[in-house]
């Protein structure tokens, strides 16, 4: 059974950093395309980032602007998202997902990131 469990969310001030992690089970993260998506209050799901299996190419939404970095920890079978210079508009529930945007086959329950002064 595929399971994804996110952690690392919380309340931070604008300009601060946060690192999200996603523990995966039931499959091997490094052998799958993996994504982060988010949902801001009152809005729909928004693609954040994807890392492709094998070649490990990474892609980011336009708002990421060099602030976000997606990576995998193969030893721990986890997916990570390092976020720097957070802004209030980054406030959202962040979800770890198996698959590329538009081809997601599984998603975790999410972790809330709140950016506020």
End-to-end CA span = 40 Å
Task: Give the ordered list of helices and strands.
Answer: EEEEEEEEEEE
Tell me, briefly, the overall form: globular
**Over the alpha carbons, how many angstroms does the gyration radius reach?**
13 Å
Roughly what is the average pLDDT, rounded to an integer? 96
Structural class: mainly beta
Low-confidence spans: none
Helix content: under 10%
What's the oligomerization state? single chain
Into which percentage range does the β-strand content fall?
Answer: over 45%
Largest beta sheet, briefly?
7 strands, mixed
Total DSSP helices: 0
Number of distinct beta strands? 11
Structure, explained:
With 117 residues, the chain is mainly β. It contains no helices and eleven strands. Strands 2, 4, 5, 6, 9, 10 and 11 form a seven-stranded mixed beta sheet that branches. Strands 1-3-8-7 form a four-stranded antiparallel beta sheet, with no helix packed on it. The model has no long low-confidence stretch (mean pLDDT 96).
Question: Which features does this protein show?
Answer:
117 residues, globular, mainly beta
Tell me briefly what this model is.
The chain is mainly beta.
What's the layout of helices and strands?
Layout: E1 3-7, E2 10-12, E3 18-25, E4 34-39, E5 45-51, E6 58-60, E7 68-73, E8 78-83, E9 92-98, E10 106-107, E11 111-115
Parallel strand pairs: 2-11
Antiparallel strand pairs: 1-3, 3-8, 4-5, 4-9, 5-6, 7-8, 9-10, 9-11
